[in-house]
């Protein structure tokens, strides 16, 4: 298993008995739209872990999903110089023509944890203003 997946996988294994005992467990990973597109040197490991656990743990009534945010307006996205040019280039391909606000990401995560989402499992939901479907 890839090194970057060891920690999330082990945390899930530790949580499995508690999630199973709850009778209605839900895991929501935070991924990236980079895992949905053919971007060199970017792994889609969390997305695949999402799908594998959804299949394996469905019998225990545990759902697993992932939210893949695009550019999000946070202090970490306040960049300058060369990184700023890269961000401008990426954002020019977002049909919504803006970055997401943190509450737009967190509301999808909250929804996936609710009983209303009880039949959603194994999905990677892009919250990216249309970036992942826009093309080049």
Count of extended strands: 3
Strand portion: 5-15%
Rg, Cα atoms, Å = 16 Å
Main β sheet profile: 3 strands, parallel
Oligomer state equals single chain
- Average predicted local confidence, pLDDT: 86
Order of adjacent strands in the largest pleated sheet: 1-2-3
Give the SSE string.
HEHEHHEH
Query: Terminal Cα separation, in Å?
Result: 32 Å
Structural class: alpha/beta
Number of helices, where a helix is a run of at least 4 consecutive DSSP H or I residues: 5
Show unreliable segments: none
Helix content: 40-55%
Anisotropy-based shape: elongated
Protein name: Tropinone reductase
Family: Belongs to the short-chain dehydrogenases/reductases (SDR) family. SDR65C subfamily.
GO molecular function: oxidoreductase activity
Keywords: NADP, Oxidoreductase
